Amino acid sequence: MSLRTTGSVLVVFLWSVTVVLCTNGWGVMYTTQSISALKGSTVNLSCSYMYPSGHTVTSTFWFINNDDNNNPVNLTDDPDYRGRVTYHNDKKNEHTLTITDLRKSDSLAKYKFRFITDQPIGRWTGEPGVTLSVTDILLQINPTSVSEGERVTLLCRTTYPLDPIPEYIWYKNKQPVTSKETKNTLILYTVTSEDAGNYSCAVKGRDDLRSPENTLNVIYGPKNTSVSVSPSGEIVEGSSVTLTCSSDANPPVDNYTWYKKNVTSPKASGQSYSITNIRSEDSGEYYCEAENLFGRPNSSTLFVAVHSSSQPITASSDQEHHNYCLYTPK
Q1: Does the residue 305 lie in any domain?
Q2: How many separate domains does the chain show?
Q3: Which residues pair with 199 in a beta bridge?
Q4: Whose CA is closest to 197, among 158, 246, 250, 150?
Q5: pLDDT tens digit string along 114-144?
Q6: Is residue 29 domain-shared with residue 64, that is, in the same domain?
Q7: Domain boundary among 109, 135, 161
Q8: Domain contains 248
């Protein structure tokens, strides 16, 4: 399944337990006792309240702290929440607190609703309040460094459990991974070099709140080893030709060795091999060996033909033909 994202929604997970605390007609009823939400997301805390007839409500607000005089501090006046808190009176005697851009510091506090009426004793705080847990989303890769063909497990987790269990989406190098897996575990059963990269994950529907990236390192021996020649245009006898060896490997190739076919001893070492003042006796098939701790394969051969006449000199490989011309002055 090609992973998709839905519109921006609140990622909030509730344990729906209504709390009713009433005394002589006074009370606050919270929609839930506990809420878990992702760091950076938005959360709503709701309640309804009641009071005896003959009172008129003059003030409603939420708080978590008291000031030095033990008076509750309105969240809208709290420096840690200023600009991130809004109140909504959705219906009569119903109230909703919205907190945006959730932070870890918002977590595990008791959010309580308080209302004040026009009567001297007409003040009420709802107990015990609502506990908010703000959770990070993290990605674990086990193991983080593997050889080709091995198995890797990617685990997307949160610091606090989310209920109901959400679906997850996966990213590699910031691009969605095409996968049918929507649970919090993604298994790469047979890793190849193409699987190496930076991975992250997110709860489906909030792909803007991704986990920090974690890197999967795939170890493999040299592959796709090939030889190229420079310059690619016409070369006259007596000029220089440089052969270059290219190879894909992790860790990188630490040793290149050059050979001429049917010649026992190596011709040179290093990623490039230069033949200066080229002569007809330099004709032949050349190839390189690329080596790291996990392998030492040879490239295909590159045939270089040098002629002492005005015939063009050509270079070709056993995989593809390259036209490199070298002329001998008369």
Answers
A1: yes
A2: 3
A3: 172, 214
A4: 250
A5: 999 999 888 999 999 999 999 999 999 999 9
A6: yes
A7: 135
A8: yes
Q: Whose structure tokens read 């593809």?
A: 320
Note the pTM of the prediction, 2 decimals: 0.75
Contact 123, 49 (CB under 8 A): no
Instruction: State the Cα–Cα distance between residues 179 and 211, nearest whole angstrom.
Output: 18
Q: Answer whether residue 301 is part of any domain.
A: yes
Instruction: Please write the tens of the pLDDT for every residue from 45-61.
Output: 999 999 998 899 999 99
Dihedral sign from CA coordinates of 104, 212, 45, 18: negative
CA dihedral for 18, 19, 25, 26, sign (positive or negative): negative
Distance CA 263, CA 232 (A): 25
* CA dihedral sign of residues 266, 272, 274, 280: positive
| DSSP secondary structure of 57-111 | EEEEEEES-B-TTSPBPPGGG-TTTTTTEEEE--STTEEEEEE-S--GGGTT-EE
* Separation of first and last alpha carbons in the chain: 68
Tell me the residue range of the domain where 299 lies.
221-322
**Antiparallel, parallel or unpaired: β 214-230 and 145-147:** parallel
